[in-house]
Amino acid sequence: MLLKSSRPLQVDIPGCGVTILESHHSQDFRMDWSTHPFLKVLAVINGIGTLETDISRLKIQPFDLLLVPSDSNHRIIDDTEHPLSLQIVCIGSGLVDDVARHDGIRFQEILRMRQSTLTKRQKPLLRRMMAEQSRGQAGSSTLLRALSLELLIAFDQQGESIETARQDNRVSVSSRMADYLEQLESEFYAEESLEDAAARLGMSLRSFTSHFKALAGCSRHQKIASLRIEHARKLLRDPQRAVTGIAFECGYGDLSSFYRAFKRTEGCSPGEFRDRASANSS
Fold first, then answer.
1. Which of 39, 49, 55, 275 makes an SS bond possible with 78, Cβ 3.0 to 4.6 Å?
2. How does pLDDT run across 133-164, given as a tens digit for each residue?
3. Which residues contact 2 (CB under 8 A, 6 or more apart)?
């Protein structure tokens, strides 16, 4: 039987600086206004609720990922009919300070990753973090720290402020598609089905394909192929880069697929393209 709590869980940060909890709320769950000396990431598994700060209220629902900085005054209010179930990643100040010291990234406001930009890799990342914590083997603590840093950087790159997040329901289909196209420019290598992409944007398959073509002027498959080959052309101009590594970086599962796609677009093999580029630059 699933154990449900009516009060927030107590948190002790271990020596590695990271701990992960699961919190399943009962219908009478109550959280007082709180601040914590650690940063926490909330992954909503199920249920509906509201995250309140001193100045804002944000509705939260399944698949939301939220970052709450240390010393941020906040509380969570559950929908009594649909209480929340959460995975909570608690990250100590040492790791957060490392990110600020080495990369100048400081987390000073609540952030959310919304569905239109939340990539598929975040869920496996959270699962792996929980698995490493459960294993407790040699190296697990270091892996847990490394995965936590990856999660923080994902929030820096993809997170949105609480004020922007509050406006999500008013974002038009065209705006969501524009966001997706912008994301695709830098994540063309990702393995994501058409169905999964449409689901992330909260659109039917028919609506997704129609809006994509209207905005991009081509199908999603054609756009991804174009972006991959464009990136491959840049990499092939570097004679130190192996063709095998280039194929992998551009998102191709095997070398033969890369060769076929490249020749279909460029009319020559990657090696021939490289030779021509080298000759032209001489």
1. 49
2. 988 889 999 999 999 999 999 999 888 887 66
3. 24
